[in-house]
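Notebook, bench 3.
Goal today: get a predicted structure for Protein-serine/threonine kinase from Penicillium frequentans so we can plan the truncation constructs. The sequence was checked against the plasmid map this morning, with no discrepancies at the termini. Length recorded as 463 residues. Pasting the sequence as submitted so the record is complete.
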Amino acid sequence: MAHRPSTCKGTKSSEGLIQASNKLPRLHGAQCSYVQEAGRLFVVLPNHAFILHPNRHHGDPPPQWMSIWVERPIRPISLRQLTFFGRTLTEPRLISSANYVRTELPTRLAHRLRDIQQLPYVVVSNPHLSLVYELYYKAFERFRVIPEICSLDDNDRFCDVLKEMLKEHLVVIPNLATGVLECRELFPPDEMDRFMNTLLRARISRRVIAEQHLALTDTFNSPWHFPDSHERTDMNADFVGEVFLKCNAREVIERCGKVAQDLMRQTTQSPQIPTINVQGHLNATFPYILSHLEYIVGELLRNSVQAVIEKYHDSSAPPPPIQVLICETPQHVIMRISDQGGGIPREILPYLWSFSKGPRTQTRLENLGRVPAMAATMQELKVSGRKTEPVGYHEGSLDSLTSRPPNLRLGMGLPMSRVYAEYWAGSLELHSLEGYGVDAFLQISKLGNKNEQVTTRAAIDAV
Ligand SMILES: Nc1ncnc2c1ncn2[C@@H]1O[C@H](COP(=O)(O)OP(=O)(O)OP(=O)(O)O)[C@@H](O)[C@H]1O
Ligand SMILES: [Mg+2]
């Protein structure tokens, strides 16, 4: 396939579209044409556009590369596998973890690049979505050429590339969210939501494997790690990489509740902040990635605290407490968060889980518009002067997100929380009692034996 304008022998139409001649490549059996916009070259099919990378040279590998990677199935992992893998950490295990990430990242990226390529041209040419595409493409190109990792030095260099990618990709969520909202009229909302879900889930999956490997490398390099001595490998360690083996539901709720309460105390004039009562199986523990759980619980409590404060703003009586019930079953831990904040407004209820539709789209776009202007990443959106404590092993991408100002409502708390909950085979449901309050049910798969729920081929093809 040609990928430079000079190879395209078409005629330029008045709209800047270069019509392809019969000799030009055919994609999926259809005649294609090209359009150049903002320095990017697109191949346009009747309903689709493929962005070609602007910096390609003749000597570059052919784009079949992408197909080869897309054909590779991804190899999902479970929390249990992540744990066992890192428990007795030896040099060969660390190297093999590095090589897993080295081949898995470009595979997962290639799948997502293909998803974006399959969007209609008008959607894919949105500046926010094409920025995400460019970031993914760059990362794909970078990772696919990394040779096999054979030594600890190789691994150190690989970790530097990983860290750089994680940092560079912090802008992905606000850009995706803005792009999806801006294109809401151009693409069926349900498909747009499915696309967003797929991309977010895949993004979590890449960060999980990358951050886990970085955490394992840190553990390996720490002065307390003695890889050659079985006796001294700590079999009771609470963290294995990013996985926290003894996640305690009550502690997480209390910690996240305090963050939500403090935030509201700082940013609202309301003197009355609802208390949070926790009851049920208070000792329930399970393996989980702590930052994921704290994000979900944090978003739910934040919504509840906010709703109760708004409802009881003018009342002299103390606001009713938020009741949290923890229920442990052989397979699951279920948390029910009940508030009396008046329930979810009827007009937004049908759009609760959507990234792309609903009556508040315009406000959300405006709020999202403040994100790149303020800091370029959602992660840096903090209430000024507030010090956030990193909760995970690394300065994660979620902890400071939780401390963004409460009036900056992006409409993403619930849909993102559900993506996180489902990622480790859990679920998130909400029941709204109109005029009274909300019950949120978060179900966590307790045994850690479920694979990460990364999109399957069927779902990719459906996008
Ligand atoms: N517990 C609740 N009580 C009342 N309304 C709620 C509750 N939880 C959510 N809502 C309503 O649902 C809307 C969507 O919630 P969601 O958390 O997805 O986004 P947001 O809170 O508006 O913005 P963000 O979470 O991105 O800051 C909220 O704006 C609010 O109107
Ligand atoms: Mg919210």
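The chain has three domains: 1-60, 63-236, 244-445. The CA atoms of residues 60 and 308 lie 58 Å apart.
Flagging this for group meeting.
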